[in-house]
Each structure stands twice: as structure tokens, then as C-alpha cells.
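re: that chain from earlier
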Amino acid sequence: MSRTRSVAGSGQGIHRRSVLAATGAVALSGGVGYALRPSDSQAATAEETTQAVAASSRRAPAAPLAPYTKGTTVASVAAPRGGSGYRRLGDGPGWQRVVRSELAAPKSGRAGRRTALAAFVQLTDLHIIDAQHPLRLEYLRSADIHAWRPHEALTVQGAIALVERINALRGAPVTGTPLHFAMTTGDNTDNNAKSELEWYLKIMSGGRITPNTGDPRRYEGVQNSGLKQYWQPDAAVRDSDKQAGFPHLDGFLKAAIREVRSPGLNLPWYSTVGNHDSLPMGCYASHGDSYLTELAVGGKKLMNVTAAEAQQLQAQIKKARDPQGVGYHDFLKSHARSMRSVTPDEKRAPFTQAEYLRAHLDPAHRGVGPAGHGYSAANLDAGTQYYAFRISDDVIGISLDTTDAGGHYEGSIGTAQLKWLDKTLRDNKDSYAVIFSHHTSKTMTNLRSDPARPGERRHNGQEVLALLGNHPRVLAWVNGHIHKNVITPHAMASGGSFWEISTASHVDFPQLARVIELTDNKDGTISLFTTLVESSAPHRTDFSDLSQTGLAALYRELSLNAPGARTTLAGDRKDRNTELVLKKG
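^ sequence. v structure.
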């Protein structure tokens, strides 16, 4: 029997599920055949056990539950003003909910019958950027206008405002049930830099952040370089972005590197790894290249190359002609005399997989937990970045590592992980399952071998889809990577069916996260509700307001106006606020 709490009734007290949502307890265990219990997290190996750790979330309300749409895109969405030139943002009408019935027919009366299984928030592609990092590829803009974004110095302020929005949600938008947890689905950092990793973990868990590296007194990067191909906000130079309507903002760069504070999420959060977290520039398997490491922490930065040179380098990246970064090494070496002097900083060093895991396990970054944010000492020992965890009585979560350590920005998984995924689903066959990854099924096409496991076969997204189709209680595959809202129904030949939910990034407009609610309709169907949310920053910007909040609002508006920015990333109505109906497995 499903142990759920009705969200339709008006006089019920706190049920055990409410307590689970409020405590979010997590422990590591790894026995063979082990079935995840509430409060358990299972790493990718089966040998080590550590002490259970409880993580606190907000308390479940004693009052009757009610839908909570304040601050969501159901209520209002930032909308552009004007049709050309630099466009300002203002309040716009909310996005209506769309019922999707491709996988099951919705039955009348379900709203009065349904019970909540779980509710959580997905954040994806935060791309926390060290905007002054010497190995950034801003100069590709000479060939591709959208290769550099004018708002990149404000990713920390924008992400903090997203945390503030999530903290302000007093319940799920449809059921009103307390949110169980938040999950980040990769590309949490942008350039595999320790500075970015530190900022990301403090944003999520709470703390003070100075989003600056190099000279502690001033910004040193492309935005005060005097180069006209980049927006020079503080300078009088008539750069290409100002010619397109971008404002002159005295004090912008000083404000952008000023200390800010994140409250940290007030509910448990988990972390999934993306290619930008694993690989320098999100594409190069170059951790062993001492020359590139020395450049990352050193005192030279390349800011400008010819359009032909930029085009050639960009083609190598897009077509994966140089996954090890050998050509990139040679490219930078050939431009050594063109580099500008900057202040060296060891904090810009690339981080390894082990350092990524240790940073998550560091008690300084625990926040409300859980310890490790899904990762465990067993992951560290085995060199893996995938795990399973208990969401509620009836639901487990499975976080995959779809990055390919062999290089390139598209993904895949190895045979050991594929077998582990199958076994975890079989061992928990009485539970519903939600799968989390960075890459989508269509972008898992990179089958290069993992240097740490050279003899292991890699598997693409179609193989993962086929495996999931063998498990009838898989409800959803939640991911990011493509920076666009897309929801895809999968009805597999093996009989299983589930929804693939891909969510837009928080670095490109419209800068969204997504609340996902799972409900049992008590009529042979399950409904998944998806509701998009923006950050807490006001839609309207004030160019004279360079406070932390003002910069977060500016972050959104600048992303709208970024030259070359795609205008379709919000997706269609059916990819935004939805009810996704499934047959009950």
C-alpha cells in the first residue's frame, strides 16, 4: 500500500511523509542487494559504510496544504519591453499549465483524489564563472558573437538570488506539500576551476563570497581591456555592445567583484556532475598538462585573436578534434607574446574528480546537508560520481555521471555504471524512481574511453533509454546540458514509459529552475507536475542600483540582450508548466 498523504483533504495532521520531508535524513550504505530505506543513500560501490547523518529542511506545515504559486512562473514571468535594440524587462503574465496525455489519458476527478509522493527543485547549468580566469575562451567572440556573454561577471549574484527564491517557496505549487530537496544537474561550475567550485558550494550551503581572483583590489579581464569586441561597462569606449544599446555603468566592475552573502538553501540538496565540472573549458581532458595548469594559475591571459584563428579553434572544440587539449596547448603557446599580464592566483587551478568529491564532503560546505550532498567516501575510494538516495517512502533518486573523462562536451556512461543502474532499479523494484543526469538522452553520443578505465565500453543515450524502459516504475529522467526547456515522452518497446524533463540553464535567458511534484492519482495513473521558477531578483532593473539584488536583476536583463543569444530556450508551452500523466507501473 502506498503510504502517502492526501493533498485534497482539509483537516489532516502531519503524516510520516511530512516528517521525512522535514528531516531529509541521509546515510551511506552499500551492501549487495541492499534496498534503500527512507533516510538512506547508496554509493556506487558495495563495501564501505559510514555513519548516518541527518539533514534538516523546513518544517512541514501543520495547517492544511494549499497550492503555492507565489514567485513561480504560473504567477508572473519577466517579459521584454520593446522589439529591437537593448530591451528592458518588466512584469509579464504567467505561463499556464498544460496537461500532456501522450503516455496516459488523464481521468476526471483526479485533483480530488491525488496524494503526494514527493516534491523537489531542479537547478541546472548554473555555470558559476570566474570571469577573469586566464584560460577562458572569450576571444572566440571574434568569430562567434555569442561565445562570450556580457553578464558573465554576475553569475554568483544571479545564483544567490535563485537560492533566495527557492527558500521563499512555502510549498509545492500544485499540492502545497513541503519540498523534499533540491538537485543540481551539472555544470555547476564553468571552467573546472577551484575558485568556481568554492563559490558554488558556498552559494548552495551558505556563506560569504568574494567573486574575484587575481588582484584583490580590482577587476582584471576582458571587460576593462579596452577591446571593442567586449562590453566595457565603466569605460567611455564605444564598444560593439554599447553600439547595440548596452548601457554605460560607472562602478559596475567594482560592484561585480564586491563581497556578497548567500543564505544557502534551507532544504537538503544533492549534486550531479556535468562536463564543465569535470573538464577544463567543459571539453578538454587535459588535467595532466602542466603547461595549461601553469597558465591557469599564472600571470598571463590571452584576450584577442583573429577571427580566422578563433574559427579554427572553435571548430576543433565542436567537432571534438582535440579532446585531449593538445592542439589547444599549442594554440596558446603560439600566442604567448600576445598575452596580457594579470595577477597570478593559485585558486584558479583546475580540480580533479577526487578534489570535487572532497569539496562536497567538506563539513564547511554541508549547510543543512546531507553530508556529501549525495557523494560519499565510497565514491572517493572507487573513483565514481554516481549514487542513489531515498527521496520518500515510495520514491528513490538516482544520480548518474554522464561526463566522459576522455574529453568532449557530449556524454555517455561506462558499462560498470550501466550495470549498477540496472541493479539499483531491480533492488528497489517496489519504489518509483527518478533518474538525474547532466546530459540528455540525445546528447549522450560521446563514446571515447575513460582514461582511468581504458578497457571499459561506453554506452549512449539510446542504451540508457532501453534499460530504463525495462523498469516500469521509472517515472522521469531529469537533466539539463542543452540550456533549453524540453519535455519528451518515452514509450519503450519493452513496456515501460516515462518522461524526460530537460530544464533551461541559469546562465542564459530566461534563467530558470524547475519544481517537480510526483502524485498518485488513485485511478491507475501518476501525474508529474512541472513548474518553472525565476530568481528572486525584480524583473525591472535600475541602472543606478549596483547592490547585490540590483546586480542579480541586471544579470537577468543582460542575459536577455546578450548578442547572439537564442530566443527559444524557454521552450514551447508544453515544455514549461505542465501536468505529465503516466500509467501507474
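The longest helix spans residues 155-168.
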